[in-house]
Amino acid sequence: MEKIIIIGSGPAAWTAAIYAARASLSPLVIEGAVTQENQMKGTLPMGQLSQTMEVENFPGFPPADLTAFIDSAIPKSRKDLMMPHNPNDKHIQGPQLVELIRAQAVHFGTRVVSDDAAEVDFSDTRTDKNRVLKLIGSGGNVYETKTVIIATGASAKYLELDSVNRFKNKGVSACAVCDGALPRYRNKPLAVIGGGDSAVEEAEYLAKFASVVYIVHRRNQLRASKIVAKRAEDNPKIKIQWNRIPKEIIGNDTDGVTGIVLGSTAGEADVPLYVSGVFMAIGHNPNTEFLQGKVALKPNGFIERPVPFRTNTSVQGVFAAGDVADDYYRQAISAAGSGCMAALDAERYLAALE
Ligand code: NAP
User: Fold this and answer.
1) Cβ neighbours of 101 (radius 10 Å)
2) Among 108, 117, 270, 291, fewest CB within 10 Å belongs to which?
């Protein structure tokens, strides 16, 4: 019987593990498995951060010569799984950052299994210290525990086009705050796909660096709230392409993205739009499929946390941290912060049971 199991392997999960391990709770992390299915779904271990390039906004990692630090902190066996560190890189890369957080968790005694939590059984109705929560791995392994922290993250939705996959990280991104300030996008025309609050916020953020930002929206009215939509319309660097939908991303191996072929949802002819970057803002899918009917979810599928400023879920002893319960901030640092909170909540819950 475990005291605490953490499901996930992004910054929320590993931060929860650091805190739980330092509280002598000997956490077990179910970090996910490397499978083709997970690859297709965008849910490989180590989370969205491992799909990001330079990370400039995580406190404690200013531009610096990081080579020696990374070499000393990440075991060779794990480093070999990553792209080799380029000594000219001055910024921490997403995969390196999440490996460092993992190494910190392991250093304090976190145990890790490469498995997916495929199913949960939270049906034990006891409320005392004998209550058992069960997790069933994709290979059938059963894990029993007193508390669970769910930190399985969310996956950005991408348009389902072959050319989108070809140019991911070469001009196609789903995170303006993560990638927008990279040299590749500076003073260049960029496009944001979508018409919700995220699309407008991403466009506003990108407008600080770009020469112009086109919002490409499939209807003639933004979904974004009125006040947010007005900001887009008033920003001289943001131009909205109404009733348009990308049919193909165009580019080459040297320059990455060079443009988009825009189709029309209003019967107009296709037109090219010349841009150096395409940012998806068509929503995120929380990785909560395995929780359907077991934990209360919001209508958009994210985990509901009923108590303000706490990480409790609808199920006693089950806590949620990171993007799986956050449809608003979605940053590595806010995920890490909520991982810390979840570990403290779980620790206090366990102490109260005793
Ligand atoms: P969203 O509101 O679901 O908007 C997604 C947008 O993408 C919609 O405009 C949708 O078009 C478009 N879209 C979806 N699938 C598409 C496809 N296959 N091809 C082309 N376009 C597609 O998502 P969000 O903007 O990420 O916001 C999520 C939630 O977070 C919302 O509740 C939002 O209010 C909230 N949020 C709030 C703030 C804030 O208040 N500051 C900031 C960010 C997010 P249609 O409009 O035609 O459906």
Assistant:
1) 25
2) 270
Tell me which residue of 6, 175, 181, 14 sits closest to 98, measured CA to CA: 14
At residue 87, the pLDDT reads 76
pLDDT above 70 covers what percent of the chain?
97
Q: Tokens in use for 215?
A: 């919002």
Residue 47, both tokens = 């989370």
Structure confidence by residue, pLDDT tens digits, 218-258:
999 999 999 999 999 999 999 999 999 999 999 999 999 99
Rounded-to-10 torsion of CA 324, 307, 341, 152 = -10
Rounded to 5°, angle at Cα 333 from 94 and 109: 80
Q: For residues 200 and 177, what is the distance between their CA atoms, to the nearest angstrom?
A: 13
Calculated CA dihedral for residues 183, 189, 190, 191, nearest 10 degrees: -170
Question: Any residues with Cβ below 6 Å from ligand 1, and which?
Answer: 159, 193-199, 201, 218-219, 223, 245, 281-283, 327-328
3 state DSSP class of 249: strand
How far does Cα 134 stand from its chain's mean position?
Answer: 26
Q: Give the mean pLDDT of 18-39.
A: 93
Strand intervals (E) in 78-116:
92-93, 111-113
CA of 220 to the centre of ligand 1 (A): 14
